[in-house]
Amino acid sequence: MPPLTPKKILIVEDEAEIAQLVKLYLEKDGFRTTTASTGIEGLTLIKTDRPDMVILDLMLPEIDGLEICKRIRRAPDTALLPVLMLTAKAEESDTIIGLELGADDYVTKPFSPKVLVTRVKALFRRLERADDPKQTSYAYGTLLVDLSRHEALVDDVEIPLTAKEFGLLEQLLRQRGRVLTRDVLLNAVWGYDYYGTTRTVDVHIRRLKLKIPLLDDAIISVKSLGYKLSDQVPKK
Length: 236
Prior knowledge:
Elements: E1 8-12, H1 16-28, E2 32-36, H2 39-49, E3 53-57, H3 65-74, E4 83-87, H4 92-100, E5 105-108, H5 113-130, E6 137-140, E7 143-146, E8 151-154, E9 157-158, H6 163-174, E10 180-181, H7 182-190, H8 199-211, H9 215-218, E11 219-222, E12 226-229
Parallel strand pairs: 1-2, 1-3, 3-4, 4-5
Antiparallel strand pairs: 6-7, 7-8, 8-9, 10-12, 11-12
């Protein structure tokens, strides 16, 4: 079997010394890298270079990291692109906003390059497990979803779901903790040839919550973007 192609990581960082240090350590560990020093350059490389992950500084010239993260998640072709934020800000609110906008992880400056590489590798492993096409069942609190049988059970009682409701639930479970835009959900569940509005997703999410009350607090609406399933199962 031919060797796997090394993952490509885009580093969007305006401080040249930090960018080069991160680049050096990632390449020592076998990753391929490209760098961008401004928000606009970063967005351009995301489209043209097709990286497997973006390491994104929050404080950038032209367009800041939060706006870049928002644009990544809004575009269907990059909505699932892994994003690891770098932030020098002390305010916890910036980190929270970044995670709500769909960042997968964050590292606060100053940081150890070795620790950053470890977090990158852990994120790739986590996402690869989440995207495992062989997984056919998911447990979430008292909810058990069996994809092979097309069944959703709460406390061993089957919940009748339509095909679209079941499809939405599957996508949220597969990408647990990640923001999924309405466009991504439409494409995944309804298909690329669907011409309805994104409000269709909202209607089906509301129905899903009504049928499975456990999901009422678990499915989080991310303003102007879409939805995510909380990593933490809400307590009864």
